[in-house]
Amino acid sequence: MIRKASLLLVGVVMGATAVVTYSQAPFRFAEPASAASADTYNQLNLFGDVFERVRSDYVEEPTDSKLIETAINGMLTSLDPHSSYLPPKGFRDMQVQTRGEFGGLGIEVTMEDGLVKVVAPIDDTPAFKAGVQAGDLITHLDGEQVMGLTLNEAVEKMRGLVNTDIVITVRREGINEPTDITITRDVIRIRSVRWNKEEDVGYIRITQFNEQTFDGLENAVEELTAEIGKDKLKGFVLDLRNNPGGLLDQAIAVSDAFLNRGEIVSTRGRNAEETQRYNARNGDMTNGAPVIVLVNGGSASASEIVAGALQDHRRATILGTRSFGKGSVQTIIPLGANGAIRLTTARYYTPSGNSIQAKGIRPDIISLQELPDELKGRAETKGEAGLRGHLQAEEGDEGSGSQAYVPQDKDKDVQLNLAKALLRGEKVDTAFPPSADSAANASD
């Protein structure tokens, strides 16, 4: 069994949204429960035969390492959209991203039907400023087709020297012709937590979960409480919309910040002994202040862990639209000098024991944004259930994705304004505040 140790970030601008664990142990094949069948060895011989035939007879001499790398990646990507091979440079880049700083355009991406799909642009990055939107399908990079490239290869082409330009061609639902967008590369420094005073309400936005997230949340709560005043503070809005996920331990720490006790999340692998449970410690950073969490179709993975934990414990009211539905865990397994593999090894479960895989978190209060004319009919994400080859939901109907649009003008942000009105008592909903009885039951 591979030992799981420290936790690492999902590949920003490198892969699909995911909660990622990291194994320090060198990769070795575990002893199989039963001896490999003769058929398995025949299939491995088949691979060897094909490999040798390609090496000897292909019209141009191929590179052996490239053939092997592509074969490995094909094997992994055939499992689900989130398993893949990380070549040495890709592995190093992922480790750099964990610190919250990397070079690139500033977009969270996955692969869909052979094209690069934008999960969400990162706030205040070149891609965000250039108008890249969640749901955009990138078809060309500097005129070169994306079809036929792996996700890692496409990401590599999007990266480059700071202050150099790249032209991405995007296909956007509702627009007949592809659109060229010129973006100037820059160093992407992720400030994962931003906050500001909304009169008597504290607004905290978490854009992703990196190593600085919990510290940022702590600073936000302290500064907002001091600035607004404990007596005047009506509560907090925790904005997780279009947050694609990140570090599992940071998602646990953020959840713990609002909880006094109870399970936060559990992860379950193929074998029962691999189950891990993470529990809250005593102490609520906000001293029990009311909390409303905003989610939408771009809220995935680690952000769904936070929303699910606070919802199940009735510590917060969840408001917005159905979340992405990314309920699986990927382990990064180093392969020495040969990079690493990202392998789906477990599902995660909310405190009530629910798997949100391909279903997402359903808000307590469903609230849709008012869309500008140019976005009407095409502002929804497909969600995890819309990804080809995704892990199936364990039970129940799969979710079909939901609206992921957030207006930049806060005055037009229907979800945020509803949250503030609820906290101030200007509007009433049976889901806010959550019942104390339900909270006690969820915590037991």
How would you portray this structure in words?
The chain is α+β, with helices and mostly antiparallel strands. The protein has three domains: 7-89, no CATH class; 101-189, Pdz3 Domain, CATH 2.30.42.10; 193-443, Alpha-Beta Complex (2-enoyl-CoA Hydratase, Chain A, domain 1), CATH 3.90.226. It is 25% helix and 24% strand. It has ten helices and 21 strands. Strands 1, 2, 3, 15, 16, 19 and 20 form a seven-stranded mixed β-sheet that branches. Strands 5, 6, 7, 8, 9 and 10 form a six-stranded antiparallel β-sheet that branches. A hairpin with a 2-residue loop joins strand 12 (193-198) and strand 13 (201-206). The longest helix has 20 residues, at 38-57. The protein is globular. Keywords: Hydrolase, Protease, Serine protease, Signal. One of its GO terms (molecular function) is serine-type peptidase activity. Residues 383-393 have a biased composition (Basic and acidic residues).
